[in-house]
Amino acid sequence: MPERSLGDVAHDRYGLVTDRELDELGITEGERRRRIAAGEFERLNGKVLAVAGSPRTWSQRAAAALLAVPSGVLGYGSAARVLGLPEYRDHDEVTLSVPLAAHYFIPGIEIRRTGRWSDEHVMVTDGLRHTTLGRTLVDLALVTPDRRLQDVIEEAVSSQRITWDELEATYRSLAGQGRSGTAGARRVLEAVEGRPPSEAELERMYTELLQRAGVPVPTMRMTPPWAERQPGRVDAMYEDATAIEVKLDKDLKGITVTDNGRGIPVDLHPTLKVPAVVA
Question: Largest CB tally within 10 Å, which of 28, 79, 132, 249?
Answer without folding.
Answer: 79
